[in-house]
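Async update (no meeting this week)

Hi team, since we skipped the sync, here's where things stand on the single-chain job. The sequence we agreed to prioritize is pasted below, unchanged from the tracker. I ran it this morning and attached the output directly underneath so nobody has to dig for it. Comments welcome in thread, and please keep replies under the output.
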Amino acid sequence: MTNQLIEIERKFRLDNFHPSMIPADAILTELVQDYLLSPPGSERRVRAIQSTTGIWKHIYNEKGQTGDVRIRTELKRELSEEEYRSLLEEVDPQRATIRKLRHTFPHAGQTLELDKYHAIPALYIVEHEMEHVGVEVVKPDGWQWTEVTNDRDYGNYAIARLLKIGQATRLVKTPALSSPQA
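Output:
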């Protein structure tokens, strides 16, 4: 089944992550994501997603630009394992495979997704998909985050490129050095 959607999303870099911040009711999934060769203005990818039950499913996804970085067109469909493996032959050689853990949980009537990238140990991205642009994202108590929605470097397409060229760690906020006491 193919679904054509409009995706409206905001992203935040979590700057003070600690494992205790993950809610007990969070659903954990493992994602392996590869970008495929794509025409300009679109991103094509395949994902292998493992749920807590251990079952893998495969998804094809194509996103197009709209002029507003928060809003993209999205075509999504589930793949058989054979279709998935066949599409891997179209992997973009300029982008690395992204492997991440996703914690999905409800918060204040919204659904948040916290992504932890295997290859970038200190990078945590919180995503919120919304019905319309005007929705305010409610931050969990004690979380310190920086909105990165408008910074294309924090999109997975760009992260895959930065991983490939060895520059992904620049996305991590480095703690400010405290000045020595006089």
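Quick observations from my side:
Strands lie at 2-14, 27-36, 42-50, 56-65, 71-79, 98-107, 110-117, 124-129, 145-147.
The domain at 2-171 is CATH 2.40.320.10 (Hypothetical Protein Pfu-838710-001).
Reply here if anything looks off.
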